[in-house]
Design a protein that fits this description.
The chain has helices spanning 3-19, 21-32, 44-57, 129-149, 173-178, 229-249, 309-326, 350-363, 378-383, 410-428; strands at residues 61-66, 80-87, 90-100, 119-120, 123-125, 154-162, 187-190, 198-203, 205-214, 266-274, 294-303, 332-340, 343-344, 368-372, 390-392, 407-409. With 434 residues, it is α/β, with parallel strands linked by helices. The protein folds into 2 domains: 3-203 and 342-428, Aminopeptidase, CATH 3.40.630; 205-278 and 286-340, 2-Layer Sandwich (Alpha-Beta Plaits), CATH 3.30.70.360.
């Protein structure tokens, strides 16, 4: 295709998406109004049915897939996913847009209806607006505009809406990857909200573990006859403050992690549980006087691509062993809950360079290349699906995710849809000729 014809096609494609601005806004609103809260995993089938109707109208072949047996899947809260595919006129590569359909709890502090999809000052408000129903809507409109403007194309387009990303993605992308779905895919774009002028190449690693310290139960008036597991856990926390946290702060990465504070290793104390269970809120009773014989702490360790998982685990065990060496009757157990290794797609990977050029064309600027501080479903596409050619790119401001009054900018959705559509044109469009 001559350069002038290609430029004309690019312009028509961008104009087509601009003309669909109201449809893009309305689609985002409709998605927000389906409260897909996770946990527990509400309304997954409802949103998949909604997407099914939309994508069938656009000529996609759709499949609804329940991740039976995955964590959280039950008859009350089944883990439903949708995968839609549209074949081109000729064989070629497959571009897959993957978005998660679940959203986190609403929390307090909202000034708008969390599931109202209110439009105000050029923004759509609601839980999941930026994380990531705005991105899902943008990918759908991008694909539909591409199909309307470019009738002669090759390969395949896939759009998926998947479950449980907010709780690990095991009922969604991980399940699809285990079933071999990504064996037929060549490029993956995940429209997570990393800002419209950024390409996210990957994420840090994560290791979750539960530490339990042991003691001996006794009457609270005679604690000297027992052994307080909470005090033992306090010694663990003190050792972490004295040695581990300073050591982690000194570890730095060459990964372009955002924000700046995440360019070091981090550890979050996710929860602490010691002694008897809390009294129910509707109870007027008092706790019984006992020395706690167990205390449990859940830790969330985020690590860098330069670190080895054995090193990460070893640092925690070293803390515990130092406490044991200096504390009488100290005993502990440690249990791994979850691990994900860091991943980072090569800057020269085809999907990266393609989206880079599309951002430059759409926004008239060079994109920033970043790495996410937390994991997202790229981990499963990489680790299980064995597909490295994957990035996150979509509308929305990362800092707004999970916050009250979450929103996505309509201009950003339009721009990101234009970038996605131009990327489809580059990867699947008519072949260029001199």
């Amino acid at each position: 295709m001559p350069d002038t014809a290609l430029t004309d096609l690019q312009t028509r494609l961008s104009d087509e998406i601009a003309a669909r601005r109201d449809d893009l806004t309305a689609l985002t609103q409709d998605l927000i109004r389906i409260p897909t809260l996770n946990p527990p995993g509400e309304n997954y089938r409802e949103i998949c049915d909604f997407l099914d109707r939309r994508l069938l109208r656009s000529g996609f072949h759709t499949e609804l897939i329940r991740a039976e047996g995955s964590p959280g899947d039950s008859e009350k809260y089944p883990r439903w996913n949708i995968v839609a595919r549209r074949e081109g006129n000729r064989p070629g590569e497959c571009v897959h847009f993957n978005s998660h359909i679940d959203v986190v709890d609403v929390g307090k502090g909202w000034t708008t209806d969390p599931f109202g999809g209110e439009v105000k000052d050029g923004k759509v408000y609601g839980r999941g607006a930026c994380d990531m129903k705005g991105g899902l809507a943008a990918s759908i409109v991008a694909a539909e505009a591409f199909l309307a403007v470019v009738p002669d194309w090759q390969g395949a387009i896939e759009i998926s809406g998947t479950a449980d990303e907010e709780s690990g993605g095991f009922g969604g992308v991980a399940y699809l990857a285990e079933k071999g779905h990504f064996e037929r895919v060549d490029h993956v774009i995940i429209p997570e909200p990393l800002n419209v002028d950024r390409i996210c190449l990957g994420h840090r690693g994560v290791w979750w573990a539960e530490i339990e310290t042991h003691g001996e139960i006794a009457h609270g008036s005679m604690p000297f006859l027992g052994d307080c597991a909470v005090r033992h856990m306090g010694a663990v926390l003190h050792e972490m403050e004295e040695t581990l946290f300073p050591a982690l702060a000194r570890k730095r990465t060459d990964m372009p992690v955002v924000p700046e504070g995440a360019r070091q290793s981090t550890l979050n104390i996710n929860s602490l549980h010691g002694g008897q269970a809390e009294i129910a809120k509707d109870s007027t009773g008092l706790p019984s006087p006992v020395v706690p014989d167990s205390a449990r702490m859940v830790i969330d360790r985020r690590f860098l691509i330069e670190e080895d998982i054995d090193e990460v685990q070893g640092e925690i065990r070293d803390v515990l062993e130092r406490v044991r060496a200096n504390r009488e009757n100290f005993a502990y157990d440690i249990r791994e809950m979850h691990r994900v290794l860091p991943t980072m797609t090569d800057r020269q990977a085809p999907v990266v360079t393609t989206v880079e050029a599309a951002i430059r064309k759409t926004l008239s600027k060079d994109p920033d290349f970043v790495v996410s501080p937390g994991t997202y479903d790229q981990k499963h596409i990489d680790r299980i699906g064995k597909l490295k050619n994957c990035i996150a790119y979509g509308p929305g401001i990362l800092d707004l995710a999970h916050k009250p009054d979450e929103y996505v900018g309509i201009d950003d959705m339009v721009a990101s849809a234009q970038v996605m559509a131009l990327s489809l044109l580059s990867l699947l469009g008519p072949p260029q000729t001199p």
